[in-house]
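User: Hi! I have a protein structure encoded as tokens and I'd like to know what sequence might fold into it. I'm fairly new to this, so please keep things simple.
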């Protein structure tokens, strides 16, 4: 996966004000709360966000290119139909975030909380997920390509109609995941996980 290309030094801003063309380049945005929805299509390019509160606002169809999010709050935020490309999300709270039908390319998640998130119908390509909580999240109809998964928690998440071929869940928790069975072709799991998944296929092991 490709890392964000951020050109420092960045212009530091302490208050977010929408501009006319809705495009924001090379900014350091730190410790602010965005209270209202961001109107229209918006693009952030080459930006770093530190402790920014996006919680419960509407930023659907947003574009984030070459961005780094550190300790930000996206809880219950609507980011549906958005584009993320070369983005790092580090120690962020994303509980209940809606990212359905999004393009997620070259995205790295580190120690984040995506519990109850909706990522259904998204294309997830060339990504790395490490030590991230996805408990009870929805990945239905997702398409995965070259995704690295390390020590994540997918307990009771849904993967209906989301092919899991070549995804390695062997270090992660996939207890109670929901799928029809066909999604399992080519999945990589541990021996104990394979025994658990056999129940999905109706196999009885004596």
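Assistant: Happy to help. Inverse folding works backwards from shape to sequence: for each of the 206 positions I chose a residue that suits the local structure. Here it is:
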């Amino acid at each position: 996966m490709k890392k964000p290309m951020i050109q420092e030094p960045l212009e530091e801003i302490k208050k977010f004000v929408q501009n006319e063309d809705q495009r924001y380049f090379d900014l350091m945005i730190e410790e602010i709360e965005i209270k209202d929805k961001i109107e229209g299509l918006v693009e952030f390019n080459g930006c770093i966000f530190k402790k920014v509160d996006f919680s419960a606002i509407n930023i659907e169809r947003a574009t984030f290119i070459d961005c780094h999010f550190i300790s930000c709050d996206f809880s219950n935020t609507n980011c549906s139909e958005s584009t993320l490309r070369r983005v790092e999300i580090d120690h962020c709270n994303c509980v209940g975030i809606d990212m359905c039908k999004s393009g997620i390319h070259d995205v790295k998640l580190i120690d984040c909380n995506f519990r109850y998130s909706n990522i259904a119908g998204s294309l997830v390509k060339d990504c790395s997920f490490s030590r991230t909580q996805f408990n009870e999240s929805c990945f239905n109809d997702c398409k995965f390509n070259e995704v690295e998964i390390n020590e994540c928690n997918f307990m009771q998440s849904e993967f209906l109609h989301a092919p899991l071929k070549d995804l390695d869940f062997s270090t992660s928790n996939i207890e109670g995941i929901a799928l029809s069975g066909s999604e399992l072709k080519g999945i990589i799991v541990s021996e104990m996980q394979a025994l658990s998944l056999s129940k999905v296929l109706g196999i009885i092991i004596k």
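A useful reference point when you look it over: The radius of gyration is 18 Å. Feel free to ask if any position seems puzzling.
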